[in-house]
Write a structure and sequence with these properties.
Elements (H helix, E strand, L loop, with lengths): L23 E2 L7 E8 L8 E3 L2 E5 L4 E6 L5 E6 L11 E2 L3 E5 L4 E6 L5 E6 L10 E3 L2 E5 L7 E9 L4 E9 L8 E3 L2 E6 L3 E6 L5 E6 L21 E3 L2 E7 L5 E8 L6 E8 L9 E3 L2 E6 L6 E7 L5 E7 L8 E3 L6 E5 L7 E6 L4 E7 L12 E3 L2 E7 L5 E8 L18 E2 L9 E4 L12 E3 L2 E5 L3 E6 L5 E6 L13 E3 L2 E5 L2 E6 L5 E6 L12 E3 L2 E5 L5 E6 L5 E6 L9 E3 L2 E7 L5 E7 L5 E7 L8 E3 L2 E5 L7 E7 L5 E7 L7 E3 L2 E6 L8 E6 L5 E4 L14 E3 L2 E8 L2 E9 L5 E5 L4 E6 L2 E6 L2 E5 L9
Parallel strand pairs: 1-27, 34-60
Antiparallel strand pairs: 2-33, 3-4, 4-5, 5-6, 7-8, 8-9, 9-10, 11-12, 12-13, 13-14, 15-16, 16-17, 17-18, 19-20, 20-21, 21-22, 23-24, 24-25, 25-26, 27-28, 28-29, 29-30, 31-32, 32-33, 35-66, 36-37, 37-38, 38-39, 40-41, 41-42, 42-43, 44-45, 45-46, 46-47, 48-49, 49-50, 50-51, 52-53, 53-54, 54-55, ...
Length: about 775
């Protein structure tokens, strides 16, 4: 009897969801997917694991990270020994996460807090096959390092002690994970051999060479290498093999559940090169074919005969294993294309031919290798760029609310939303003159819009603009004019004379922190990540890291000059500027954990604004009080300058989407006012708005959504113009004569400030007009 931990229907705890490697989920999947969130994760070659409210990911450097599956918030990160390629997907037991790395290390990690419970180095031969967790035991094989030799397939108890191992002369177990077939464990070997093993004792019940014509009537003289996991379904083992870049086979082989012996029942089908683990549903077998650098396809075979029913060709090899949702009337098959800048496909099996429901190309140019995990209506997958970069993505239904919780959207300040965007200048509502501060932006969460009104924080209903609550604060002393309120976990944060934490429901104070210098923030907003709030105090020359829950100071850091930036945070690193009037300044990078300096760069011009971090690159503009400033691209790792281009002076925070950077710049009466688009890789100018149009401003940070770029037109210290630009060409799609201060987007609505009012735009005719 197999006893498993209590797993909800929404969980995806193993490589292909369950111990038989079915890859089948009863969960719905999005009809119209958008990216709900993404997280930088160094690089990722494996399918994520989902358990309870968390999604777990193994990065190329061996680190294991846990994210809230709804919000993408990083909950913990544990570091194991790892080189650069991780081919062993994680396994979850519910309370533990198990990880095997390419360094040959196996570890158990507490799933709630990331504490490493045990770890041991088992091999020099790497681990490259999926982990399977069954009845308190772990199963996996040694990889292909150092070529052919004696390689082991392990069974270990949950505490890390060895139960048994099987040693064979082989090149190894590369992507060959095990499937449970009753009391037996079935897995393949590189040499075209599959084994059946008693999973309790480790006794080999059978070993079958796929070229053995005395055992199989459908054997093949040159079956190729087995580099896929096995799937067990209804008395049969299914797997694939690859012989050359174009050739390979799919296999269905009978297994006697009482003896563990393979039987001459089934078929082999010349489907093509495949490292894909099949999924079997309703009499059909689904698998990917195609090698890297070659065209590929998702194929559907007749489960009885192995004959091809249909093949859906795509631009690159499908090395991933398909995931299938059976929540709809017809099965929906998900897979990825193995290439740089690859895509996610969703097909519906309509019978004689498939129907493409959607295809999505994620905004980074990373390589796609692994498949997708399905959980609670969402999809999770990872990408790999170079050895220092990759992302974990969450896809969901376009109608799901996402909000705009922080300045420029998130801690990295990417400035783009997966929300749809208004295609016209139709207003949903316009607030009264509530004193909304030009230069700031509106944050949106919980169906509420939070607004800096200079002497108070005003909370408006997102859909109607109705005032829900007002909380005054001390605006005396320095003029705290530019901050954006920040939302996190039911609370609203901002910094003026103090850093305040309010209850988002009613505006009541939860805690406050008085900057020890007694100086006010100017422009700078809080940035919140991993339970930490990082704030500034302008001419107090300090940045502070506070505990999100209590407001307790965790560390502080003194800069040369004014501390004005809203900190940008990514991969445990905090980036901000310090500057003096007309004397340049420094861009700093600190460790989020303890505030120690990792690097700083002396800038020729003044880094008055805030950075954007994407793909391990820091993008930050500088202000020159006499002539042009700069847009800099820096390495997040060491601060080295990747490229630098001249631009009109600005404090604007760049927006990035895909391979493009967008920036507003210029100061009315002193410098040309423009909005520009640059190539994010080399800084080459792609387009800029005509100077006479005056679209752009040093205080306006542009935002991207749905193919549009939104920016404002200044009117001295205020704004009097909102513009939607074609993000590809820079042409004006629509405009409105009011508003324009750093826009924000949420749930298909655009929010901006001008003349003390908040303007909300939407194409939804049901929204109330005020």
């Amino acid at each position: 009897m197999i006893v498993l931990y209590a797993v909800s229907a929404e969980d995806w705890p193993l490589f292909k969801k369950d111990i038989s490697n079915s890859g089948i989920s009863s969960d719905q999947i999005p009809d119209d997917p958008i990216i709900l969130w993404s997280a930088d994760i160094q690089r990722m070659e494996t399918t994520p694991t989902v358990s309870s409210s968390m999604v777990y990911a193994l990065a190329g450097n061996g680190s294991v990270s846990a994210f809230d599956k709804e919000t993408g918030d990083l909950k913990w990160r544990s570091h194991l020994d790892g080189w650069v390629y991780q081919m062993s997907p994680l396994a979850s037991s519910g309370d533990k996460i198990f990880a095997a790395t390419d360094s040959g290390q196996l570890a158990a990690i507490d799933s709630l807090n990331g504490r490493v419970l045990w770890k041991q180095n088992l091999t020099d031969n790497r681990f490259e096959s999926p982990l399977n967790y069954i009845d308190g035991r772990l199963y996996l094989g040694e990889g292909g390092a150092y070529g052919p030799g004696k390689k082991r397939f392990f069974c270990l108890f949950e505490n890390g002690t060895e139960c048994w191992n099987i040693t064979r002369e082989t090149k190894g177990y590369q992507w060959c994970g095990a499937a449970v077939a009753g009391n037996y464990l079935v897995f393949g070997r590189n040499e075209g051999i599959i084994l059946s093993v008693n999973r309790s004792s480790g006794e080999v019940a059978d070993e079958l060479n796929l070229n053995d014509s005395t055992r199989l009537s459908f054997s093949r003289d040159t079956p190729g290498r087995v580099r896929a996991s096995a799937t067990f379904h209804d008395g049969y083992i299914y797997t694939t093999s690859e012989l050359s870049a174009q050739e390979g086979s799919a296999w269905k082989i009978g297994l006697n559940p009482d003896t563990g012996r393979f039987e001459d029942r089934g078929w082999s089908s010349p489907a093509g090169f495949s490292t894909s683990t099949p999924s079997v549903y309703n009499g059909r077998v689904y698998l990917g074919v195609g090698e890297h650098g070659h065209p590929g396809a998702l194929v559907c075979l007749n489960g009885s005969s192995g004959e091809m029913i249909w093949s859906y060709p795509v631009e690159a090899g499908v090395k991933s294993s398909p995931s299938i949702s059976i929540a709809s009337e017809l099965p929906r098959i998900l897979f990825t294309t193995a290439q740089v800048n690859g895509s996610i496909y969703c097909l519906e099996d309509s019978g004689a031919a498939p129907k493409l429901l959607w295809m999505l190309n994620p905004p980074d140019s990373g390589y796609l290798l692994a498949g997708l995990a399905i959980s609670d209506g969402r999809l999770y997958f990872g990408t790999e760029g170079d050895q220092h970069y990759g992302k974990l993505y969450c896809l969901g239904e376009a109608g799901r609310e996402e909000g705009w919780p922080q300045f420029h959207f998130n801690p990295q300040h990417v400035g783009w939303s997966s929300s749809s965007a208004p295609r016209s200048n139709q207003t949903a509502w316009i607030s009264d003159d509530i004193g909304a501060q030009a230069g700031s932006s509106v944050s949106v969460a919980e169906g509420k819009a939070f607004v800096n009104c200079i002497t108070n924080i005003t909370c408006l209903d997102q859909k109607s603009g109705e005032v829900l609550w007002i909380t005054p604060f001390n605006d005396s002393g320095d003029f705290a004019f530019g901050f954006t309120p920040v939302y996190s976990q039911g609370r609203v944060f901002f910094t003026s004379d103090k850093t305040y934490c309010l209850n988002a429901s009613d505006g009541s104070e939860v805690w406050s922190f008085a900057q020890p210098t007694l100086k006010y923030a100017i422009d700078g907003s809080p940035t919140i990540v991993d339970g930490r709030v990082v704030v500034s105090d302008w001419d107090g020359h300090h940045y502070y890291c506070l505990d999100e829950e209590t407001g307790e100071e965790l560390w502080n850091f003194a800069v040369v000059g004014n501390a004005q930036s809203t900190p940008a945070i990514d991969q445990g690193k905090v980036v901000f500027g310090g500057w003096d009037w007309g004397m340049g300044g420094n861009i700093y990078c600190l460790d989020l954990e303890d505030g120690h300096e990792i690097w700083n760069l002396t800038a020729e011009n003044s880094p008055c604004g805030s950075a954007t971090i994407n793909n391990s690159t820091v993008y930050m503009a500088t202000y020159n009080f006499e002539e042009d400033g700069d847009l800099l691209a820096l390495s997040l790792e060491d601060g080295s300058v990747l490229w630098k281009v001249k631009t009109s002076p600005t404090d604007s925070t760049p927006a990035i989407f895909g391979d493009r950077i967008y920036l507003c710049s210029g100061c009315e009466g002193f410098h040309r006012l423009i909005t520009s688009c640059f190539n994010a890789t080399n800084g080459e100018l792609i387009w800029e708005t005509p100077v006479g149009e005056n679209i752009g401003d040093w205080r306006c940070s542009p935002v991207y959504a749905d193919g549009l770029l939104f920016a404002g037109r200044p009117e001295f210290i205020d704004y009097a113009g909102t513009f939607a630009l074609n993000a590809t060409t820079g042409d004006v799609v629509w405009s409105y004569p009011e508003g324009g201060s750093s826009p924000s987007l949420a749930d298909g609505m655009l929010f901006t400030i001008g003349g003390g009012r908040v303007y909300a735009f939407s194409d939804d005719p049901s929204l109330e007009k005020l």
